[in-house]
Amino acid sequence: GLEASAIEPAGAVPDAALTARLDGPAAAVDGDRGRRLLAALSPLAGDASGVQVEARLLRQGCAPNPPARLGFPPAAQRLDLMAPPPLHHCDVVYVRIDNRAASARDVSPLYVDAEGGVVGLALSPDDDVRLEAGQSRYIALRLVTRDAQGRPLARGVERLALVIAPAGERRLDLRGLAGPALMRGADAAPPLDRQGLAAQVFAWRVED
User: Distance between CA atoms of 136 and 124, rounded to whole angstroms?
Assistant: First the structure.
């Protein structure tokens, strides 16, 4: 799971088409929402090639970690997102998202935890999904396997998903997909592939 400080405050508006795929009779169960999110992202056929991701891993116990707005901490080690090692309680993963495309992109980061819950993630130094060409944003994720009272939390495979869209007149902030649905019914939802959406999904295993 994640420490709450990484989570984006409510307010982002879900995309109608993706929301329609996430909601159904069983969607009140967090685990269903996570599975539905991953299933909805898998067929997206937009261009994600201009968005590049680099990660670092900081292991310094449960002491407060440097904020993401400062970039990668000097003590953090390179983390291969294609073959990450098992992660443990209080590990902090720093992620830098770079827009190397020739035009702006909207990048919405979402996290699916081991129980299938979905949360939207805060971006730094500006909590803005719009990345102009050449811009970067950072995320800092502190992983936890126990709550504040020491009770165990679910462990297993967790995923970071980046939903990427070409910039339009209005920002497309999809982090609201982590919250209750604002719209239901697929009939009113345009096909996702017509919106040029793309997704990058990175997985790692969280152990105690």
Answer: 9
Q: CB of 15 within 8 A of CB of 187?
A: no
Residues 6+ apart with CB under 8 A from 139: 6, 68, 94, 95, 97, 109, 121, 122, 123, 124, 160
Query: What's the predicted TM-score (pTM) here?
Result: 0.83
DSSP 138-199: EEEEEB-SB-TTS-B---EEEEEEEEEEE--SS----GGGGS--S---GGGPPPGGGGT-EE
21: left (phi over 0), alpha (psi -120 to 50) or beta: alpha
Q: Give dist(CA 125, CA 139) in Å, integer.
A: 9
Residue 131 CB partners (closer than 8 Å, separation 6+): 51, 97, 99, 104, 105, 106, 107, 137
Cα 175 from chain centre: 8
Q: What is the pLDDT of residues 8-46, one digit of tens each?
A: 544 444 444 443 344 443 333 456 788 888 988 988 889
User: Residue 190: is it exposed, middle or buried by C-beta count within 10 angstroms (0-12/13-18/19+)?
Assistant: exposed
Strand (E) or helix (H) holding 79: strand 77-79
Furthest C-alpha separation in the chain: 51
Q: How far apart are CA 37 and CA 21, in angstroms?
A: 8
Find the length of the chain: 208
